[in-house]
Hints:
The complex is a heterodimer.
Chain A (H helix, E strand, L loop, with lengths): L2 H18 L3 H33 L1 H21 L6 H9 L10 H10 L3
Chain B lengths: L3 H23 L2 H19 L7 H30 L5 H5 L3 H11 L4 H6 L2 H12 L2 H12 L4 H8 L3 H21 L5
Helix pairs in contact in B: 1-2, 1-3, 2-3, 3-9, 7-10, 8-9, 8-10, 9-10
Amino acid sequence: MTKEDEFAHRLITALDSSVRDMDAATLQRLGALRRQAVASQHSLTHGHQILSLLQRHSLVSVLLALFILISGYWFVQSGQPAYSPETDILLLTGDLPPNAYADKTFSKWLDARSPF
Amino acid sequence: MASSQEIDAFLAGVERRAFKQALFTIRDHHSALDVVQNAMLKLVERYHDKPAEELAPLFQRILQNTIHDHFRRSKVRDFWVRLVSPLRDKDDENTETLESLAAHAESTHQPNPEKEASANQHLAAIEQALAELPQRQREAFLLRYWEELDVAETAKAMGCSEGSVKTHCFRANNALAAKLKDRGISL
């Protein structure tokens, strides 16, 4: 050990004693901060588990993303009424019978409600 | 990967020295606690998956960076405060509430008279001498001798070369010896 190191170690011994005699309020606060930091690890760990699993299995994540996209597309498409070109033709040429435009249920409902 | 118990044990072992390190540099009790808290949270957030034996140099690096960040933010805040202060109403400057005075007294961390009387004068002088060192010298000295990191680990934690660490340590030792000699303290 060099002379320089010896001097430094004597200083550090003195500093260590100051750390041992630290006031109780500061020690309590430091303990609370530590517990808070360690507790944050638990909340992080659960989220990170899923993320790290996806990072490790890139094929799984790609397939999962594709599945989500396809099912989303299917959901949007299934909500729309089926397109029929025949209906368009009939509407344009006016060959639909008049009762095709009539709202029979509405007339019935109106008759049933009318006091006259 | 370090378990919660290992991280807790590691932090319990370094928290006091980390606080002192921050206090030597920042010289404000509450800010030093804030810095230690930020360093602990960053370690857990970013490096909880590292093995326990790697935590010490990582934590020291985070702590040094957090201290530097604190100074950077303080500089920016001081700049804006100075810029805006002439616009303030002069009456506002002289009004101090009891709460602000109490907070100030708490933040400057004045020891009570009894403690002051019984405080070790040598220790106070050593701490004062350390606080007066240039920041890089103090960092190198504390990391190398107090945290017992080797030269390579200290260099990594400080983000400089091993040669710089040796130079900083040498200068820190000389400066401390001179300062303590001036105060009539021999170790």
